[in-house]
Amino acid sequence: MLPGLPRRPTALPALGAQSSRLTASAGNLLYFASFFPFNSLSQHYGQLTLTKKVAACLSSNVALALGVNLLLRLELKQVGAKWDNLWTPANLEDNLVFGYMLGMLLLDAFLYGFVTWYVETVFPGQYGVPQPWYFFLMHSYWFGQPTTRRENEEMKCCGRNEDKYFQAEPPNLVAGIQIKHLHKEFGDKVAVNNLSLNLYKGQITMLLGQNGAGKTTTLSILAGRYPPTRGEVYINGYDISKNIIEIRKNLSFCPQHDLLFNDLTVSEHLFFYAVVKRLHRKVYPMEINRLLSTFNLLEKRDTFSKSLSGGMKRKLSIIIALLGDSEVVILDEPSSSMDPVSRRVIWDLLQENKHNRTILLTTHYMDEAEILGDRIAIMVKGTLQCCGSSVFLKQIYGAGYHIVLEREPHCDVEKVSAMIQSHIPDATLENCTGAELSFILPKEYAHRFEALFNDLEKTQKQLGIASFGASITTMEEVFLKAHKLADSEKDIQPIKYPSLKSQKLTQDMKWNVNMSSNYERPVFSRLNEIATIKFNTGFPLYCQQFRSMFIKRALFSWRNWKLILLQTTVILIVTTYLLLTTKLQYELPAREMDLSQYGRTIVPYSISGNSELAMNLTKNLKIFLNAKNQELREVQGNIVNYILENKECHDFSIIALSIEVEKNETIFTILFNNEAYHSAATSLAVLDNILFMSLSGPNASIEVYNKPQPPHIYGSNVVPTSGSQIVLCLAFGMAVVVSSFCLQTVTERTTNAKHIQFVSGVYILTYWLSALLWDLICFSISCCLLLGVFKYCGIDAFVADYHFLDTMMIFMLYGWSVVPLMYLGSFLFSSSTTAYVKLTLFNYFSTVFSMITYILWHLSEPDSIGASIENVLMVLPSYNFAMSISRFFDDYEVKKICARKFPTTSLHCSKTFTENNIYSFGENGIAKFLISSAAMGLFYLLLLLCMETTFWRLKNFFFQKIIFNVYNILMKGRKAMVSIQVINELEDPDIENERKKVLALPPKLKNTPLLFKELTKIYYKCPVVKAVRNISLVVKKSECFGLLGLNGAGKTTTFKMLTGEETITSGVVLIDGISITENIRKVRSRIGYCPQSDPMLNHMTGRELLIMYARLRGVPEPDIYKYVETFLHSMHLETQADKFVNIYSRGNKRKLNTAIALMGNSSVVFLDEPSTGMDPVARHLLWDAVTWMCKSGKAIIITSHSMEECEALCTRLAIMVKGRFKCLGSRQHLKNKFGNVYRLTAKINIDKNEDKLGEFKNFIATAFPGNKGKMLKQKHQGIVGYHIPGKEICWGKMFSILEEAKVLFNLEDYSVSQITLEHIFLSFANTDKTENEQEIKVV
Fold this sequence. Notes:
Layout: H1 12-16, H2 20-33, H3 37-43, H4 50-56, H5 60-76, E1 89-91, E2 94-97, H6 98-122, H7 139-143, H8 152-156, E3 175-186, E4 189-200, E5 203-209, H9 215-222, E6 230-235, E7 238-239, H10 244-248, E8 251-254, H11 266-276, H12 284-294, H13 310-322, E9 328-332, H14 340-353, E10 358-362, H15 366-372, E11 375-380, E12 383-388, H16 390-397, E13 401-407, H17 413-423, E14 428-433, E15 436-441, H18 449-458, H19 460-463, E16 465-472, H20 475-488, H21 507-510, H22 523-529, H23 538-559, H24 561-583, E17 591-592, E18 602-608, H25 612-627, E19 631-634, H26 639-645, H27 647-652, E20 655-662, E21 665-672, H28 679-696, E22 705-706, H29 723-739, H30 743-750, H31 753-759, H32 764-793, H33 803-826, H34 832-859, H35 864-873, H36 877-898, H37 911-914, H38 927-971, H39 975-986, H40 989-1000, E23 1010-1019, E24 1025-1035, E25 1040-1045, H41 1051-1058, E26 1066-1071, E27 1074-1075, H42 1080-1084, E28 1087-1090, H43 1102-1113, H44 1117-1130, H45 1146-1158, E29 1164-1168, H46 1176-1191, E30 1195-1199, H47 1203-1209, E31 1212-1217, E32 1220-1225, H48 1227-1233, ...
Parallel strand pairs: 5-10, 5-11, 8-9, 9-10, 18-19, 18-20, 25-30, 25-31, 28-29, 29-30
Antiparallel strand pairs: 1-2, 3-4, 3-6, 6-7, 11-12, 13-15, 13-16, 14-15, 16-36, 17-22, 20-21, 23-24, 23-26, 26-27, 31-32, 33-35, 33-36, 34-35
Helix pairs in contact: 2-24, 2-34, 5-6, 16-20, 18-50, 22-44, 23-32, 23-43, 24-29, 24-32, 25-28, 29-34, 29-36, 30-34, 32-33, 33-36, 33-38, 34-36, 36-38, 43-44, 45-46
C-alpha cells in the first residue's frame, strides 16, 4: 500500500502539459525532487513539533520516508507494525506514530485525486470543454442542467436555406443534428465559419472537403472534443453546450486516427466498449461476433491491436462506433486505408444501420459519397458551399458528358483531340494523367455523340486507344467545381475549360500534364526546372548531411524549450538546495532537560519504609510530575524487577525512582532509560527539582538546558564535507541531464523517422556524430551553469584558482562517455517517456550504488576481489565521474585544511596528502578514471556504430541461415512438400513466366532498378505465419508497378523487406544489382520510401523537413530553395509549409511523406498507400508528380486501395492474396484476360414509382440479350449494374439506347466503361474467401 500511494502526484503535471515529453519530464522531476525535503527534515527532526511533522506528510514522499523509518524502528525492536500498536510511538524520543503515516498517505491520495479532478475539469487540455473555476459551486454541475430538449416539431421546422446551391430541406424528416451559425477559431485561424446544416434521421449525410477544410473540426465539436467559439448545435434536440452528458449517451464517434489500446486484444476492446455503452450482458457476445464476422476479423479476435494492419485497425474503430444502438453516429474518414472489399462491407453495414439513426460521414472517395450519401455537403476553407443530393449537385455543377479514354503507349493525343474536335467543336480537355485521357462534351451537342462514338470505335486501334467509356457528370467533377467556384468567388456557371481549338498540345501534355483548370501553373513545368540539378557526392555530401542532422537536433532542443527550461530549473534548484544543506553551518539550539520533551511518560516509583523526608519527597514528586503531564505510578516491591518484567515501562518510561528509608538515612535512587539520548541528564534535573522544592517550597523550580559548544575558530571544518557527499548532491541533476538525450533518439526510431533518414542516404557516422556534438554542447551549457552553482554555494574546490577548467574537463569526459551509452540504452525502449524515466533511474542509482560499493570495499581490507570489482565499475561512466569529482574535492579540502596555521588534529597532514598529484595513477589520483571515461566513450560510440552497420547482417544471417534451415528440416517430408505442390498447381502462367524470367537473369544487373526472386517472409509465431510466399519480380526503369491486395495480404511486409526495415527469411533482393542483405548502406541511398504510417518529426515544419531531406539527398545549397518549393507546389502544400507537421491533417501528412520519398536521385521509389486521406485535387497532383518521376527514369512501386489510382498510373500491376501473386500484367492485359466485359451502371429515381425499376430491367434485357445482368446495391440509392459482353458493345447504338432510357425511366445518372481493375480485384477477393485453405493449414 505504501509504495502505491505516493505515485499520485505524477498525474498532476500530465493535465497541464502539452506534450508527453514535458509531462514525463515534469512528473519524473517532481516525483524525485519531492524526496529531497526529507533530507532537511531529518537534520532538524528533533526540533520539530508533532504538528509540523504531520504537516510535512502532505508530501506523500516525505510521508513514505517517515513511515519506512518508523517501520524499521519497530522491526528493530522485534515488534513490527500491528493493528494494536499503530498509535504507539516507535521509541521514547519520537512522538510520531505509524498510524499518522497511514492516515496522511490516505489523505494525500484523496487530496491529489481532488486536485487532479479540479485541474482536469478546468484545464482539460487540447480536447474537452473547460468548466469555470467555480464549477464545484454550481448546482448544474452536481445535479445536471435542466433537460431542455427541442420537440420533434421544432426539429422538423428547421431553417430553409434559399441559396440556389442548397437543396430544399425535406419537410417530413426530423433533424437528428441541427447546426446553426457554428463558428470555431484556433487563435487567429478560422477553422469553421458560420456553418448551418441539418442532418436528418434515417439518412446518411456526407461531408466533403479538401484536407484542412474544417471537416474534422466540425465533427470534433459535435462529439464534444472542442467547444465552439460561437453558434448553436442541437443533437437529438439537446443543446451541445448544456446537455453534452445526455447527448453522449446516444452518440458514437469514430475519429480520423485510430485511438486504440495497444495492450488490449480485439475482443477485449469490444468487451470494454460494450460495457461502457451499457449493452445487455446476454446481447453483446452475439453483437460482437456478428460485427467481427461482418468485417472478417473473427480470426483476429485474440490479436493485440498494435499487431493489426492499418486497415484492420480502421475496421476495429468502426465496429466500436457501431456497437450498441447509438442514435447518432459520426464517422471521420472511416474507410481510409481499407481495401475495396472492406469498403463495400462498410457501405452495406451503414445502409443496414441507418434506419432511425443520424449518420454523419466524411470521405475523400467520391464514389463512396455518391453511393452512401442521401445528402452531400461540401466545405471549402471552413465554409459550407453547397448541400443536397448527388443528383441535385450534378444538376447545379454539371458541365455535360464525359468520355474517358485509356491510352496505349503509342497513342497520339493530337490526333485523338482532332477527331473529337471534328464532331464536338466545343469539347474540352479535362484531364490527361498517366494512361487516362478525358474530355468534357457539352450537353447541347448530344445529337452528335452517336457519330463520335462510332468513329472512335472504328479508329480505336489506329489512334492507340485501349478502351473508352462514357458517363454523365461525376461527383468528382462536382467536388472540383465547387472548390474552383469558392476560390474564384464567381457566380455559378460551367467551368471554362479551354476548348480544343485554343489548346496547345505541348510536349508537356504528351508527358501527361494535368491540364485541369484548378491550377494555373502545370506541375510538370516546375518539375522540369529541377531535372538538371546535379547532386553532391563524396565529402560535400558528407558535410551537407552533417549540417542537416545537426540543425535537426538543434531545432528539437529549441522547439522543446519548455522541457529544457524545466530540466535546467529543477537541476539548478535541487543541486543548489542539496549543496547548501551539505555545507550549512547553523548554531544548534539549546534543549531543555525536561520529561515533557518526550510527551506523556510513565514514572514508576517505589517507597520502602517511612520517614518525613520520604513523604515530603514523594509529595513534591507528584506536584512536579503532574505539572509536566506525566503519569506517576507507585510500585510495590523491587522497582528494578518491575521495570524488567513490565514491557510498558520499557517503551514509555524515561526515568524511575526508588526511596528507601534505613534507620537514620533515606536513600533516593533514580534510574534512567539509556535508549533515550538525554535521559541521564533529564533524570538528574528531575531529582534536583524535587530536592529544591523540598528546601524552598512547592513553587521553586530549576530549569536545565543542554547547549552545545561552538566549534573552534580555526577548526570549523574539523570533519570536512566529503567528496562523496558532493557526488550525491550532483547525481540527480546529472542523471536528469544526460537521460534527456535519449528522447529524440527513441522517438525517431519508434516513429520510423530514423529509417526514412537512412533510406534518404544519410551516413550512419554522420547521423550519430551530429547528435553527439549537439548533445555535448547542450551538456556543456548545463555544466557551466553548475559552475555558477558551485560559486554561489561556496564549493571553492571546483572554481577557485582556475579549477573550473579541471572541473569542466571532468564534466566533459563524463559527457563524452555517458551520451553514447544513453544512445545504446535507448534501443531497449519503445517509448521515449519510458526511456527517459528509466534511464534517469539508471544513471542516478548507478552513481549512488557504485559509490556505496566503493566505500564498503575501501573500508574493508583490500584484496583481489575488491580490485576486480573496481575494474568492473570503471565500465560505468557514472562511477568514473563520481570518483573523479570525489577525489578532486577531497584533495583540495585536505590541502586547504593542512595549509592552515592551526590545522585540525583529525587529519594526518603528511606529505602523501599535501603533495599529492591529483592527476596521478596513485591511490588518491584520478588519472585512471579520466582515461577510463575517454576510453569507454570511444568504446560505446564504436559499439553503437557497429550495431548499426553489422547488426543488419547478423539478423539476416540468423534468420536466413539458421532459423529458416531449422524450420525447413522440421517441415521436410511432411506437409511442406504438399504446400509447395498446391502453390505450384494454383500459380498463374503470367506469374510463372515472370519467375522464370527472373531466374534466367544474370546475378548482377546494374541497369535493373529492382529485382527480387523467391522472396519469402515467415513470422515464427504460434502458429507460424507466412506473410510473403515465394514471389519474384523485375521492375525496369520508368515503370510504375502497382501492388494490390486486401488488408493483410502482405504488401506492406514486402515493402519493409525491400527497404531494409524487416529481415528477409529467404530469397534475393537486388537494387541496381546490389544485394540488400550484403550492402544495406548502398541500397538505402538508391531508394525512396513512403511508408504506410507517417514518420514525422513533429518539432519541424513541412518546409524544414523538406530542406533537411533535400540536404540528405545531396541537393546543392544554392538550389535547395527552388527544389523544395517545387515539391511544395507539386503537392499543393505551399499554405501549410511553415506550420508544424504535428498539426497537419492526415492527407497533408501523406503529401509531405510522398514528397520526401520522391526527392533525390533514387532509382526506385516505394509508395505504400500514398494517397490515403488525400482529397481528389491532391490525388491528381500526386499522380502528376509520380508520372513525371517515371518519365525521368525512376521505377515506382506503389500500393493502393484506389483502383482508379492504379488505372491512372500503373504500367503493370499484381494482385496479392495471402502473400502470393494471383495475377500479374498490364492493366489492359488483365482486363482482356479476366473478362472482355463492359459495365453499365445506372441510377434510377425510384422514390415515386418503384415499378420503373422492373421496366428498366426488361428494357435492358431486350436491348442487350446477352447481358449478365444483376441487381447491384438496389439498397444503395437505386443503383443497378449490368455486365455486358464486349462483342455486343456498339458505342453509337449504346449511347442512343441509354439516352432513350434516360427519358423513359427517369435515369439520374449512367456510365458505360470496360470492366475496371476494381471489379477484377473484387473477383479475386471473392475467390479468396472460398479458396481451399489447405496450404494455410500446412504452415
